[in-house]
UniProtKB/TrEMBL annotation:
Residues 543-697 form the Helicase C-terminal domain. GO terms for cellular component: primosome complex. Its EC number is 5.6.2.4. Component of the replication restart primosome. GO terms for molecular function: 3'-5' DNA helicase activity; ATP binding; DNA binding; hydrolase activity; zinc ion binding. Zn(2+) 2 binds at C517, C520, C535, C538. It comes from Kurthia zopfii. This is Replication restart protein PriA. It is an enzyme of class 5 (isomerase). Pfam families: DEAD, Helicase_C, PriA_3primeBD, PriA_C, Zn_ribbon_PriA. Binds 2 zinc ions per subunit.
Length: 802
């Protein structure tokens, strides 16, 4: 028996399975999709069995054996094997990378601790039965050594055993040692009566336990609740009062969140959308829906009811959200409706917890998975629905090998299972809306808010005028007035800073020097909590300088309007205001994000002040004002999607206002009110923005009119980086048709990260049948030759920015 194994050897130039001989004692257990350890070069590496063959070209004396089998039940399903083939083609990754990304990190390495088998034995021999019982848990190691297997086999031969069934693999579960009170009250009484009166503690214990027939307790619980000490417990266990068992439990960090909500009566628009979706479910057709609904139109309710139908049919649903830690309200709604049937794949979970969730999904113990990008690989085997909420978010694209987009994987899986995909957004990605226009996706529109509230009124404030009016505050006259009103009326508001959480840099007022990372071409950012400057690319840290490193001036200051600065400004202007600030600094602790939102929801603050992390998913009835401190920040990014992202962000935050009974108002402060992304965000109708942006994309040959490939090359030596970028672009130019546009090589927008100099080339094309082959050859060249010379190269077929 010969297994074909994809090995985990990074940067090996050849992407194909290798043949390994399966040792005899492994033959009965090994299956396609199992992880193995195999010798490769001078060491053992992890591998995935992808198939079996009878013959091999490898000469007998060269053929090596599988050294270890790591799984009894395959972790890679047939679907995943097929998906990995597709992904290697789609993203130009190697198969090993595709397989690895589908698994929880615990399974990406050698992970065999506590792997156990539950073996069901059908005994004939009473002695053996007494020894093992009907079911027995066997450490997997014993199987591997073939000892146990031999024992069992010979037992079958000797007719002591009839059958041996390996029921399932017990993953890494936490087992809790418990004392189980036996369930015969009569017998307990008898034991008690036979005890001498001097055994007072034992008698007391038995009396207490008599009221808890058949129940299980940890020794700690017994000590606390009934004062039964460990030694007493041991003694009475020996008398037969109960027994110790290892109860296996899943770690469930979310158990406290379970609640219950009922399905809402749908609006007409919602119910039309839902019925289109359920129709394709009934027809078992793979259809991709673009659910384009204004903020507050009740997209989530449509998801929930579509999921309900999926569950009713015995199928499973996958729900993706952009960043799960930032969307606690969203997750709560799924938990609220489906309770224990929901698994939440949260980045805050430990490796073990993630693995447990993964196993629950694999065993079908849950029906719904809510998670960020990687949850798209949830190992369900009967998928009935896939949802991407806020489908335009760039977090759905993985910026690391394999560079897949969750949207593509969703559509691939929907075709595998013949089920629908719902892409939901108030501001769809241009690519998606274009596909909907062409009829590739099925467009569903929700134009009204669910409770027929009006969309908020949006006012654009030109901050240049404020200066002319002599207002030097960071609050425009309009915004200040609006805040004052809300404080008086005891309504709540959101103030939004269009920035990532970190934004303060240190600048010398005398010479203009900005303190930079010594390894990267990027300014260091100030973190108040650690009182240090940190690089967000390499993690480098240093103390805040007291004088300028260039001119030694002492006039060196923090710069950039950070949330902290706005907070103190609010307190200055509105001393009575209560503020909750939400940014990377205040949400670093586990659960802090949820806690802050809870406090805000409970009315413990008037103002929620935050960065991009508050743009998503907030649904509080009392918010009547949203203020955007400065809309321009994201417009100035060197990114062809800058306008699109700005528009999306402004629409998102605006959508937080007036979602319930109270009407909402939005004030956007900007220095470029004439920019179309800002002007059109005011109208809150998507189509005009779409038209305008598409015109520009066509003019400059950007996606979605053109496809783009981004090749990035880095090297510690700037000359080498430039040289190999040149070689890469020559290679592409020589091998592709003259239909493609090749831009570069140029220095990347951040020209140095971690002391590596970075260059890039951009390929723009409409149709280029040769493209994949040429790029594969380039990658092979890189892997065989360039990599040894210290070059790093990445190829991205669908870059989200460049
Ligand atoms: P979206 O996800 O489109 O922004 P939500 O699903 O958050 O919108 O819905 C906005 C608000 O409207 C929520 O408070 C939700 O509970 C409520 N809602 C949604 N659908 C209905 C409905 N059919 N009837 C009443 N309220 C609804
Ligand atoms: Zn200086
Ligand atoms: Zn750095």
């Amino acid at each position: 028996m010969i297994a074909q194994v994809i090995v985990d050897v990074s940067a090996y130039p050849v992407d194909r399975p290798f043949d390994y001989l399966v040792p005899q004692n492994m033959e009965q257990l090994i299956e396609a999709g199992c992880r193995v350890k195999v010798p490769f070069g001078h060491r053992d590496v992890l591998g995935f069995v992808v198939g079996f063959v009878d013959e091999t070209d490898v000469p007998q004396n060269k053929l090596k054996q599988v050294s270890k089998l790591l799984d009894i039940e395959p972790v890679i399903t047939e679907e995943m094997l097929a998906m990995s083939k597709w992904m290697t083609h789609k993203t130009l990754c190697y198969e090993i990378d595709a397989l690895q990304v589908m698994l929880p990190s615990a399974l990406r390495a050698k992970y065999e601790k506590n792997v156990q088998l539950l073996v069901e034995l059908n005994q004939i021999d009473p002695q053996l039965a007494a020894q093992f019982g009907q079911k027995t848990v066997v450490p997997y190691k014993k199987f591997e050594n073939a000892q146990l297997l031999e024992v069992l086999k010979s037992s079958i031969k000797k007719q002591q055993l009839q059958t041996v069934t390996v029921v399932k693999q017990q993953g890494k579960m936490k087992s809790v040692r418990k004392f189980e009170v036996q369930d015969d009250a009569q017998q307990l009484q008898t034991i008690n009566e036979q005890l001498s009166n001097r055994a007072k503690k034992q008698k007391q214990a038995i009396e207490w336990l008599s009221n808890h027939i058949g129940e299980r307790f940890t020794p700690q619980e017994l000590l606390k609740q009934a004062g039964i000490s460990a030694s007493v417990l041991k003694a009475i266990a020996e008398l037969g009062v109960g027994r110790f068992i290892d109860e296996e439990t899943y770690r469930d960090p979310f158990s406290h969140e379970v609640g219950h909500t009922k399905a809402l009566q749908l609006t007409e628009e919602q119910s039309t959308a839902l019925s289109d979706i359920t129709t394709t479910m009934n027809q078992q057709k793979a259809t991709t829906f673009l659910l384009h609904g204004v903020t507050g139109s009740g997209k989530t309710e449509v998801y929930l009811q579509a999921i309900q139908k999926t569950i009713n049919e015995g199928k499973e649903a996958i729900v993706l959200v952009p960043e799960i830690s930032l969307t606690p309200m969203m997750t709560e709604r799924f938990r609220g409706r489906f309770g224990e049937l929901v698994a939440v794949m949260h980045s805050g979970l430990s490796q073990g917890e993630k693995y447990d969730e993964w196993r629950k999904i694999q065993r079908g113990e849950v029906k719904v998975v809510v998670g960020a990008r990687s949850a798209i690989f949830a190992p369900f085997t009967n998928v009935g629905l896939i949802i991407l909420d806020e489908e335009h978010e760039s977090t759905y694209k993985q910026e690391d090998t394999p560079r897949y987009h969750a949207r593509d994987v969703a559509i691939w899986r929907s075709e595998f299972y013949n089920c629908p995909v719902i892409l939901g957004s108030a501001t769809p990605a241009l690519e998606s809306f274009a596909r909907a226009q062409k009829g590739v996706y099925h467009l569903l529109s929700l134009k009204q808010r669910a409770k027929s509230q009006a969309l908020p009124v949006v006012e654009i404030v030109d901050m240049r005028d404020e200066l002319h009016k002599g207002n030097r505050s960071m609050f425009s006259i309009s915004l200040a007035e609006a805040i004052r009103q809300r404080l008086e009326r005891k309504e709540q508001m959101v103030l939004f800073l269009n920035r990532r959480g970190y934004s303060s840099f240190v600048l010398c007022r005398d010479c203009g020097t900005v303190v930079q990372c010594q390894n990267c071409d990027i300014s260091l950012t100030y973190h108040r909590s650690s009182e240090k400057l940190r690089c967000h690319y390499c993690g480098y840290e240093e103390h805040v300088p007291t004088e300028c490193p260039e001119c030694q001036s002492e006039h060196i200051r923090f710069f950039g309007t950070g949330t902290q600065k706005i907070e103190s400004e609010i307190y200055k202007v509105f001393p009575e205001a209560r503020v909750i600030r939400m940014d990377v600094d205040t949400t670093r602790q586990k659960g802090a994000h949820e806690r802050l939102l809870e406090d805000f929801g409970a009315g413990k603050a008037d103002i929620l002040l935050g960065t991009q992390m508050i743009a998503k998913g907030l649904d509080f009835p009392n918010i009547t004002l949203v203020g955007v401190m400065s809309a321009d920040t994201s417009l100035n990014l060197p990114d062809f999607r800058a306008a699109e992202k700005t528009y999306q962000l402004l629409t998102q935050v605006s959508g937080r206002a007036g979602r319930h009974e109270l009407p909402g108002e939005v004030i956007i402060q900007t220095y470029t009110p004439e920019h179309y992304a800002i002007e059109l965000a005011q109208a809150q109708i998507f189509e005009p923005f779409y038209d305008q942006e598409m015109t520009l994309r066509r003019r400059f040959a950007y996606p979605p009119y053109f496809y783009v490939v981004l090749i990035q090359i880095s090297h510690e030596d700037v000359m080498k980086a430039a040289e190999y970028a040149g070689l890469a672009s020559d290679f592409v130019r020589q091998n592709l048709s003259n239909q493609v546009q090749l831009i570069g090589p140029t220095a990347a927008s951040i020209s140095r990260i971690q002391n590596r100099y970075r260059y890039q080339c951009l390929i723009k094309y409409k149709r280029e049948p040769q493209l994949n082959d040429v790029l594969k050859k380039l990658i092979k060249l890189y892997r065989t030759d360039w990599i040894k010379k210290g070059v790093l190269m990445t190829v991205d077929l669908d870059p989200s920015s460049f």
